[in-house]
Design a protein that fits this description.
Number of domains: 2
Radius of gyration: 18 Å
Structural class: alpha+beta
Strand content: 35-45%
Distance between the termini: 37 Å
Organism: Hydrobacter penzbergensis
Largest sheet: 4 strands, antiparallel
Order of helices and strands: EEHEEH
Strand order of the largest sheet: 2-1-4-3
InterPro entries: DUF4288 (IPR025630)
Number of strands: 4
Pfam family, one: DUF4288
Number of helices: 2
Protein name: DUF4288 domain-containing protein
Helix content: 25-40%
């Protein structure tokens, strides 16, 4: 059995769908015999986890599975191994960097709080 990283894509439709198209791209770990089984397992996971629910405004929200767009075999699960990379272009580089630092600060705070709860 091998480990694979699969990207599953869902379309998010709220109400009658008259809004900007929204998609959720999820990276999932898949444990399978080979690439074909991993692809099929990722597709089954995506189909199984489609969801319909009503939001706070009582509008129907649909998460519709589109497909698996990427599949990568994870050769070595080692500390610090890269599993995902995405290059972004931003109109406001400073604002993006500020956002990155704010998220990192929040994450550090949460991790510290959880650690302190254990001691």
């Amino acid at each position: 059995m091998e480990w694979y990283l699969a990207k599953l894509v869902y379309r998010i439709i709220c109400g009658n769908g008259e809004h900007h198209a929204q998609f959720d791209e999820q990276l999932r770990l898949i444990h399978a015999e080979d690439e074909l089984h991993a692809f099929n397992k990722a597709q089954l996971t995506g189909q199984k986890e489609q969801e319909n629910f009503f939001n706070q405004a009582n509008h129907l929200v649909q998460w519709k599975f589109i497909n698996v767009t990427e599949l990568h075999k994870l050769e070595n699960l080692t500390d610090g191994a890269e599993v995902y990379s995405r290059i972004r272009e931003e109109d406001d580089g400073r604002a993006y960097q500020h956002s990155v630092h704010a998220k990192a600060g929040y994450l550090l705070e949460q991790c510290t709080d959880k650690f302190l709860e254990t001691v």
